[in-house]
Specification:
12% helix, RLP23-like, eight-stranded parallel sheet, globular, Leucine-rich repeat, LRR (right-handed beta-alpha superhelix), single chain, 29-stranded parallel sheet, membrane
């Protein structure tokens, strides 16, 4: 639009002006345009929506006083509220939505008696405080104040809707605000209300039964709140209701049968609640129902396919994530001629449909994951050429996909066939599905190589997961051309060759998760990884990679999971690691060839929950600052995630990490955010155990076995209340086992073997369950239960077992002592008889002393035990 708008001033008779989506911002003519419009006294209808207005001038005098319709929406206007609007006494329709008006709403606005429609939504910087009384707005039919950051108790607004507005208002939208309190029962006084939205607030409590008195109500949206209790049965009074949305609340109980009496209902959304019971049969009496969303509840029983099949107008059906069962046949689906959305995921439902059946509908969304669809591939879905989302993961398919299956389908963008037993070659599958954004084929039996030109034929990919198949060959370098790729998971295959070194410095990559673990990759970690600045998860473990710790990772400052374990990487753990990766939550470098000391500044990683440096050649002390790991000082919850990578809707990428705990490798995925573990085992660490490790209250696993640690167990170890596994074996620790360890009620795996601990093993509480004697083996100075070595004051202390068991044990010990004495005396008497022969025969003498050297250690242990038992026997006889 030209900068000179003087010509418009000459249109004095102009009544209707529509500049919707006409860009008037580029040449600075927007202010001039409004001045020109103000010179047109006959204007009655003006639409300047989405035309690039940035500000509104202040008019000292308004000329278009006949204006009845004004739309300034979606312009990002950042001016104060235009008070000159109040002088347009004929204004009926005012739309100021989706702007950035500042300041407050003039109180005079609520006195504009001519207004019938007022839309202020999306002005989050505007003070949306309502006046105490809107008695002047007697003609107002529609009020939209959604997404305006209005806060406070919604029931305090009752006074603002008193007077004649209660008899005129037909549409009220207060959604997407910060309102709290109980469901506003005063709304039932608005007898003419047709449309009501309170969605996306913080309302609590039950839905009032009096809501059924709004007999003219057509749409009700109270989704995304915290409403609880049951759905009122008397909602059947809403005879004109066409749309009911109560999703994303905490509603409980059964779905009322009376909902089947809402004969005008076209949309019913009760998803994401805690509803139980079965699907009411009465819902089959809703001939106009187009969408039925009951997913993510606790519904159970049969799926009632005969009842639902009566809903011939149905376009969307979501019953996912419930406990519904039964069998679905072609007859049950034949009446759904308009069906577009079919989601029955995560239910024990069996599909028994002939392969030659041709459905009458055209789906664009299919999710039958975790249903029983296989073992054959469901060819009855092959003609769904408009499908966009196609999810058959975990559906029991153990079949090859026919080559002709994908030819009719050209629009698919989300494909998930994971966790089946699908066979065939990967290249044959990918060549038919070139438009995907999301491809998940993990955990199947696919074979072959990744096509060399995958970067050209699938340029829009943002997730590619082919893990846990039998794929081979090298990883093609064209994969680096997928600049929008966010997740690449090729783990647990048979890929060989090098990690691709093809990422370029000039490109802006979005890759956030790279998982090439459990393959046969060789060579060094490439330098081009430094260009993946958004990387959050890097897993290259269980390969044959060599070289030193990659300097390229110094540029990957957003990494939260780093797993380079089970390779051949050597050198030192770099000091810059903690500085360059401050968000690390999982650091796993086990089973490599790292040397040197553990960098003390690793203690500055405040987010670290899992550190595994086991099976290397690390030396020096355990850094004392390890007790400062902030994330190990508290218990984490299931809602946390180690990854911030959003892959689809509300789903986050969940990496799989192996943690050695309780003597076995446990793989964590969904529960990884709960794990808190330190594993420094099988190195050459020395010194004492740092006392500040006892400050890591959230620690679940501590393994520092197989080192050269000395000193005592820290006395305050009982502060580790949630410790489940403790392995201190194969060190040089000494002293007594702290008695307070018996209060560590979560401890279920303990290994103190092959140290120099002494004294009595603690008894009671948790130690009563740790009865495996191998826990304490290799500690010759330990006594007490569960070892068969009574302590010296055993007759004064309660041991496990009854008196007869103790007497039997003592009798056996006496016999053993006399046997050891006899053996010793016999050895001494026979010694000189043997010595004479050894002195005479030189060859016998050499053989004998070789034998003696081999048995020396055994004899030493025997003599120590003998002396201790003799002392105990003498002490008992004296007493």
């Amino acid at each position: 639009m030209g900068g000179d708008v003087k010509w418009m001033c000459q249109l004095s008779s102009l009544q209707h002006l529509n500049l919707y989506q006409v860009d008037i911002s580029s040449d600075g003519s927007s202010g001039k345009l409004l001045v020109a419009i103000n010179m047109l006294p006959s204007l009655s209808w003006v639409n300047l929506g989405s035309c690039g207005l940035k500000s509104i001038p202040s008019f000292p005098h308004v000329n278009f006083t006949s204006l009845s319709f004004l739309d300034l929406s979606d312009n990002n206007i950042q001016s104060p509220f235009p008070e000159w609007l109040i002088n347009i006494t004929s204004l009926e329709h005012l739309d100021l939505s989706e702007n950035n008006f500042k300041g407050g709403i003039p109180s005079a606005l609520w006195s504009m008696s001519s207004l019938t429609v007022l839309i202020l939504s999306g002005n989050e910087r505007l003070d949306g405080k309502l006046p105490g009384n809107q008695s002047s707005l007697c003609k107002l039919r529609s009020l939209d104040m959604s997404q305006m950051n209005i806060s406070g108790d919604v029931n305090e607004l009752e006074g603002s809707f008193s007077g004649c507005i209660r008899n005129s208002l037909q549409s009220l939208d207060l959604g997407l605000n910060q309102l709290s309190g109980s469901f506003p029962s005063w709304l039932v006084e608005m007898k003419m209300l047709k449309h009501l939205s309170l969605s996306s607030n913080s309302l609590q409590g039950p839905i009032p039964a009096s809501l059924g008195r709004l007999s003219f109500l057509e749409t009700l949206d109270s989704s995304l709140n915290y409403l609880n209790g049951s759905i009122p049965y008397n909602l059947e009074g809403l005879s004109m209701l066409t749309s009911l949305n109560l999703s994303w609340n905490h509603l409980q109980g059964m779905i009322p049968e009376t909902l089947g009496n809402l004969s005008s209902l076209r949309s019913l959304d009760l998803g994401y609640n805690i509803l139980s019971g079965g699907i009411p049969k009465s819902l089959g009496r809703l001939p106009s129902l187009e969408t039925l969303y009951l997913g993510h509840n606790n519904l159970s029983g049969p799926i009632l396919t005969e009842t639902l099949s009566n809903l011939s107008s149905l376009q969307g059906l979501d019953l996912s994530d419930n406990h519904l069962g039964g069998m679905v046949s072609a007859a049950h689906l034949s009446n759904f001629k308009s069906l577009q959305i079919l989601s029955m995921a995560n239910n024990p439902i069996i599909f028994s449909i002939s392969s030659d059946w041709i459905p009458p509908f055209r789906l664009w969304y299919v999710d039958l994951s975790l249903c029983k669809v296989g073992p054959l591939f469901p060819t009855w879905l092959r003609l769904q050429q408009y499908v966009i989302t196609f999810n058959l993961s975990n559906s029991g398919i153990s079949d090859a996909i026919p080559d002709s299956y994908w030819k009719p389908i050209s629009s698919i963008v989300y494909l998930d066939l994971s966790n089946n037993q699908i066979t065939g070659r990967l290249p044959d599958l990918l060549k038919h599905i070139q438009l995907q954004y999301y491809v998940n084929l993990k955990s199947n039996r696919l074979e072959g190589e990744i096509p060399e030109d995958i970067g050209e034929v699938m340029p829009l990919l943002y997730l590619l997961s082919l893990s846990n198949n039998t794929l081979n060959g090298s990883i093609p370098t064209s994969i680096c051309r997928l600049r929008d790729l966010r997740v690449l998971d090729l783990s647990r295959n048979y890929f060989s060759g090098n990690v691709p070194n093809c990422w370029e410095p000039s490109s802006s990559y979005r890759l956030e998760a790279l998982n090439l673990a459990h393959n046969s990759l060789v060579g060094v970690i490439p330098n081009s990884l430094s260009f993946l600045s958004k990387l959050q998860s890097l897993q290259l473990n269980a390969n044959k990679l060599s070289g030193e710790f990659p300097l390229a990772l110094r540029s990957c400052s957003n990494v939260s999971t780093l797993d380079l374990g089970e390779n051949k990487i050597s050198g030192k753990i770099p000091v810059w690691l903690a500085e360059s990766m401050p968000y690390l939550k999982v650091l796993r470098l086990r089973s490599n060839n790292f040397k040197g000391a553990i960098p003390p500044n690793l203690a500055s990683l405040t987010h670290l929950q899992v550190i595994d440096l086991a099976n290397n050649d690390l030396v020096g002390n355990i850094p004392h600052g390890f007790g400062n790991f902030t994330a190990m000082k508290f218990i984490h919850n299931i809602n946390e995630t180690t990854s911030r990578i959003m892959i689809y809707r509300t789903n986050y990428y969940k990496e799989v990490v192996g943690v050695v705990m309780k003597g076995q490798v446990l793989e964590y995925q969904r529960l990884l955010s709960l794990v808190v573990s330190i594993d420094l085992s099988s190195n050459r660490l020395s010194g004492s155990i740092p006392q500040d490790l006892a400050d890591l209250v959230g620690l679940q696993n501590l393994n520092i076995s197989g080192n050269m640690l000395s000193g005592h167990i820290m006395k305050s170890i009982n502060k580790l209340h949630f410790l489940e596994s403790l392995d201190l074996s194969r060190n040089r620790l000494f002293g007594e086992i702290p008695t307070l360890m018996s209060s560590m009620t979560y401890l279920s795996h303990l290994n103190l073997s092959f140290n120099n601990f002494s004294g009595k093993i603690p008894q009671g509480n948790q130690f009563d369950t740790l009865t495996d004697t191998s826990i304490y083996m290799g500690n010759p100075y330990l006594c007490g239960f569960p070892l068969d070595v009574p302590c010296e004051d055993g007759d004064k202390q309660e041991d496990h077992g009854n008196n007869s068991q103790r007497e039997s044990a003592e009798h056996k010990n006496n016999n053993a002592v006399w046997m050891y004495l006899s053996t010793t005396v016999g050895f001494i008497l026979g010694f000189w008889a043997v010595c004479g022969t050894l002195i005479v025969h030189k060859r016998w003498r050499a053989i004998f002393f070789i034998f003696i050297d081999g048995k020396f250690d055994q004899l030493y242990v025997f003599m120590i035990l003998l002396v201790r038992r003799l002392k105990r026997l003498i002490k008992k006889n004296i007493m």
